[in-house]
Amino acid sequence: KNEVEQSPQNLTAQEGEFITINCSYSVGISALHWLQQHPGGGIVSLFMLSSGKKKHGRLIATINIQEKHSSLHITASHPRDSAVYICAVISGYNNDMRFGAGTRLTVKP
Amino acid sequence: KAGVTQTPRYLIKTRGQQVTLSCSPISGHRSVSWYQQTPGQGLQFLFEYFSETQRNKGNFPGRFSGRQFSNSRSEMNVSTLELGDSALYLCASRGPSGVEAFFGQGTRLTVV
C-alpha cells in the first residue's frame, strides 16, 4: 500500500462544476502540498498545509491531521483547470517528500 | 526572486551514452532534490543534496549520480543510458524550513 493515496485517478467535469480530490496518507507529516502539473511538465505548489484550511481564488484545500486526510476543492471549474493534481507530503521524520499518483482532471467547456 | 532553473529542457540521447542535467535552485536555498517522473511510476525520489553533501538517496542504480556545488547549483548524471531512463527529470528547491518546495520546469529526456 502506498504511503500517499489519491482519489480519483481520473476525473472529467463540465465547466462550472464543483470538484473534490482526496488524499490520504499513512505517515507522520510536517506539511502537505497540493501540486499542479500542466502538460509540458512544470509543477507548481498550489498550497502548503500543516493544519486547517487555505483558500486561493476558486481553490480551497483542507487537511485533517488526526484523520490523515486532505482534500482539494475547485469551485466553478474552468477548462484551464485541466491538469494533473498531485498530493505530496513532507515526512515529519526526515523531510522527505512523498507523492500520490496524481489525479488527472479534465474540465470540458 | 528567480525561480528554479533546469537545463536543458529537452534532450535526446542514444542508449549507452551518458547525460548531465543541471538545476539552479532559488537564491538562498541550499537544498536540492531530484525526481524522476514516468507515466507508469509517477514521481520517484532520486536524491537530495544539502550544502554540497548528499543527504538522502532513493532506490535507483549507481548509474544515477549527482553533485552539488558551493553556489547550490546541482547536477545529476546518468551513465550508460537505457531506454527505460526516458522520463521527465524534475528538481525541487527546498526552503530553509524544509517544508517549502519549488519545482523547476523539468528536463524531458528521451533515450532512443
Q: Largest sheet of chain B, described in full?
A: 7 strands, mixed
How many strand elements of chain B?
11
Uncertain spans of chain A: none
Query: Tally the helices of chain B: what do you get?
Result: 0
**Helix-strand sequence of chain B:** EEEEEEEEEEE
The gross shape of chain A turns out to be globular
Question: Could you tell me the mean pLDDT of chain A?
Answer: 94
Report the major sheet of chain A: 6 strands, mixed
Oligomer: heterodimer
Number of DSSP strand runs of chain A: 11
Shape of chain B: globular
Q: Termini separation of chain B (Å)?
A: 37 Å
Give the mean pLDDT of chain B. 93
Order of helices and strands of chain A: EEEEEEEEEEE
Radius of gyration of chain B (Å): 13 Å
Helix content of chain A: under 10%
Bin the strand percentage of chain B.
over 45%
In terms of topology, how is this protein built?
The complex is a heterodimer of chains A (about 110) and B (about 110).
Chain A: E1 4-7, E2 10-14, E3 19-25, E4 29-37, E5 43-49, E6 52-56, E7 59-64, E8 69-74, E9 83-91, E10 97-99, E11 103-108
Parallel strand pairs in A: 2-11
Antiparallel strand pairs in A: 1-3, 3-8, 4-5, 4-9, 6-7, 7-8, 9-10, 9-11
Chain B: E1 5-7, E2 10-13, E3 19-24, E4 31-38, E5 42-50, E6 53-57, E7 64-68, E8 74-78, E9 87-94, E10 101-103, E11 107-111
Parallel strand pairs in B: 2-11
Antiparallel strand pairs in B: 1-3, 3-8, 4-5, 4-9, 5-6, 7-8, 9-10, 9-11
Tell me what the structure shows.
The complex is a heterodimer of chains A (109) and B (112). Chain A is mostly beta strands and 109 residues long. Chain A contains no helices and 11 strands. The termini of chain A are far apart. The model of chain A has no long low-confidence stretch (mean pLDDT 94). In chain B, 0% of the residues lie in helices and 54% in strands. Chain B has no helices and 11 strands. In chain B, the strands form 2 sheets. In chain B, strands 2, 4, 5, 6, 9, 10 and 11 form a 7-stranded mixed sheet that branches. The radius of gyration of chain B is 13 Å and the shape is globular. The mean pLDDT of chain B is 93. Classes of the chains: A mainly beta (109), B mainly beta (112). Chains A and B meet through strand 4, strand 5, strand 9 and strand 10 of A and strand 5, strand 9 and strand 10 of B.
